[in-house]
């Protein structure tokens, strides 16, 4: 039994001594014995449970060991609704792969000036973002820091992560829409999309009016890119924020696609329905766990840490180095007989001359409409009706507003 509980047993025995002073010696001994046995049982039960959620106990000192989001999710170690607390922050396991961390004191939580969603693993084989968020959560669990934000960490598609596949039945990042929430789910991704939308709805609904809303949905691309780190800015009738793009640039995400229409991606959902500063952020190419060069993600990690713990970052935009691309077309596969007219390993942002053939969809020939038109996210294997590629042209920074 830990020394703290031994002390508690002794203190309890003294405090109720008067109550049993008229009892015989045997009665007192049995009472104390039964009490100590109970404490020993409780001590073991508490230690086993706390160990399962990331605690180690050494005498009277409580030390939180590294909490591993990936292990806890794939190992089904947690129960939805389970919560625990360190010296500063409250941790709540909301659902499989969904972790809320916020200041433990309700007054501090209300005084936070931002509410941030950080998601990864929407596609199960995109490992670098998972490694990044897992490392950040481990660090926060071992060395608690005072948050300036409520933060929702999301491991998007655990079943696909466990299989090392992009998805199980359907591309999860095409399912985030209010209509999807009303449908009976027909596969794991449809069910997961509805769950994640509900979680994000609840998270932002509990945000105070003064709290800035942010959602960074972190990915890696299935092919090489002429600009390895880039972001997709969801469509907005109000235009695109210069300061939001400047924050990305400070994290070495120096290329941004400006969407031309609403979409059913996770970042667009948060942007359109919760007015969040939201981006889909691509962080290099898909690689297996352990093969990612995490040093390249250090600038992004520093930005995220400043967002979570420091003053809100307001870097200046370097217009000479930022690269903006406006989406001109989203080309969807309409026929089973569909092909792309370039190599499968052609890099994102490769440019074409006006009139060059890009794809053939049944009898329809699709060509570049502008000189310098570039392709992004080409995928000949998408299902009929889904987007097979985007075409983009470079834009001037003057398009940004603040």
From TrEMBL:
EC supergroup of this enzyme: hydrolase
Molecular function per GO: hydrolase activity, acting on ester bonds; succinylglutamate desuccinylase activity; zinc ion binding
Domain of life from the UniProt record: Bacteria
Hydrolase keyword on record: yes
Binding site for Zn(2+): 123, 126, 219
Reaction equation(s) it catalyzes: N-succinyl-L-glutamate + H2O = L-glutamate + succinate
Entry EC number(s): 3.5.1.96
One example of a Gene Ontology biological process annotation: L-arginine catabolic process to succinate
Gene3D superfamilies associated with the record: Zn peptidases (3.40.630.10)
Pathway of action: Amino-acid degradation; L-arginine degradation via AST pathway; L-glutamate and succinate from L-arginine: step 5/5
Domain AstE/AspA barrel-sandwich hybrid: 321-394
Domain Succinylglutamate desuccinylase/Aspartoacylase catalytic residues, every copy: 114-302
Cofactor binding remark: Binds 1 zinc ion per subunit.
SUPFAM superfamilies listed in its UniProt record: Zn-dependent exopeptidases
Cofactor: Zn(2+)
Residues the record marks as active site: 282
InterPro entries referenced in this protein's UniProt entry, alphabetically: AspA/AstE_fam, AstE_AspA_cat, Aste_AspA_hybrid_dom, SuccinylGlu_desuccinylase
Assigned keywords, A-Z: Arginine metabolism, Hydrolase, Metal-binding, Zinc
CDD domains reported in the protein's UniProt record: M14_ASTE
NCBIfam families in UniProt: arg_catab_astE (TIGR03242), PRK05324.1 (NF003706)
Known role: Transforms N(2)-succinylglutamate into succinate and glutamate.
Similarity comment: family membership: Belongs to the AspA/AstE family. Succinylglutamate desuccinylase subfamily.
Protein name: Succinylglutamate desuccinylase
Natural source organism: Neiella marina
Gene name per UniProt: astE
């Amino acid at each position: 039994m830990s020394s703290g509980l031994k002390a508690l047993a002794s203190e309890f025995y003294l405090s109720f001594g008067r109550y049993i002073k008229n009892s015989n010696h045997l009665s007192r001994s049995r009472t104390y014995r039964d009490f100590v046995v109970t404490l020993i049982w409780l001590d073991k039960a508490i230690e086993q449970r706390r160990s399962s959620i990331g605690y180690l106990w050494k005498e009277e000192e409580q030390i939180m060991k590294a909490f591993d989001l990936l292990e806890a999710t794939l190992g089904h170690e947690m129960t939805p609704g389970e919560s625990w607390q360190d010296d500063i922050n409250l941790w709540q396991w909301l659902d499989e792969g969904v972790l809320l961390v916020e200041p433990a004191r309700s007054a501090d939580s209300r005084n936070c000036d931002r509410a941030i969603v950080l998601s990864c693993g929407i596609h199960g084989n995109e490992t670098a973002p998972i490694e990044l968020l897992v490392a950040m959560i481990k660090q926060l669990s071992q060395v608690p820091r005072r948050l300036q934000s409520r933060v929702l960490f999301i491991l998007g598609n655990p079943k696909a992560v466990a299989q090392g596949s992009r998805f199980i039945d359907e591309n999860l990042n095409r399912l985030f829409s209010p209509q999807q929430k009303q449908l009976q789910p027909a596969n794991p991704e449809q069910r997961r999309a509805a769950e994640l939308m509900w979680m994000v709805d609840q998270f932002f609904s509990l945000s105070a009016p003064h709290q800035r809303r942010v959602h960074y949905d972190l990915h890696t691309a299935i092919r090489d890119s002429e600009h390895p780190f880039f972001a997709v800015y969801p469509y907005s009738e109000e235009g695109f924020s210069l300061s939001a793009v400047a924050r990305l640039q400070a994290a070495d995400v120096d290329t941004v696609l400006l969407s031309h229409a609403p979409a059913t991606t996770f970042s667009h959902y948060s942007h359109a329905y919760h007015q969040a500063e939201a981006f889909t952020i691509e962080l290099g190419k898909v690689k297996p766990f352990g093969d990612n060069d995490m040093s390249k993600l250090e600038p992004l990690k520093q930005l995220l840490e400043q967002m979570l713990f420091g003053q809100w970052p307001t870097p200046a935009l370097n217009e000479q180095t930022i690269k903006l691309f406006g989406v001109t077309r989203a080309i969807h596969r309409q026929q089973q007989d569909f092909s792309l007219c370039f190599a499968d390993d052609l890099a994102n942002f490769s440019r074409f001359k006006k009139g060059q053939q890009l794809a053939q969809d049944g009898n329809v020939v699709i060509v570049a409409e502008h000189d310098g038109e570039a392709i992004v996210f080409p995928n000949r294997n998408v299902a009929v009706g889904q987007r097979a590629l985007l075409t983009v042209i470079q834009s001037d920074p003057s398009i940004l507003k603040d």
